[in-house]
Design brief:
238 residues; alpha/beta; six-stranded mixed beta sheet; five-stranded antiparallel beta sheet; 11 strands; 26% strand
Amino acid sequence: MSVELSGLRLPLAHFTLEIDAVLEARMTAVFGASGSGKTSLLEIIAGLRRPAAGTVRVDGQVVADASQHLFLPPEQRAIGYVPQDGALFPHLSVRANLLYGWNPAAPRPAGLTFEHVTEVLEIAPLAERAPATLSAGEKQRVALGRALLAAPRLLLLDEPLAGLDLPLRERLLPYLLRVRDEFALPMIYVTHSPDEVIALCADVLVLEQGGLARRGKPADLFSPSATPRYELRPPPTS
């Protein structure tokens, strides 16, 4: 599985997102400060934004090509997307949220069953509860389970641990490791945490003001001896 981003271009408020890259790792990090274009890149891949120029291919299939005015809607891309806030449906139970994108006819690996996903994420006891009764960590696990049960060919994670305090982030990180190791599913992981990149990912793209500043193995970019050792710089405010 590969994700090819060819000549990708999208004007944003303070800069233009411009990316050329091929992503082939099981789990690729997109790292950068808030406002560096990370979420916009995920939204282009997911089909939530149209690029002004360039092509997106997922597993060899063209899902967006600005020059050909081709743009597959999100529901035709078979891509799971977990936003930062989880975005659970408040009027549905946890079970109904988890099964919202379930398609019995969709091809899926043997492990992507309701029983196994809820076991891996330890959310089976939550099935009949309402989202409003869940903790922040439980909501994120349910959102992750919902994305997995839709049987995507690619999973996009937009800062799933952001906004959580350190003890809760440390409790949730093992669940992300389980998902990475249990399911044969490529993932793109947006974060501004070097620790999360090192723990989870094999490849990292560093974005600065919409451009690809550097790419490499997490240990090479974030170790104390790395030159340069990446530290976040805020985007311009005007």
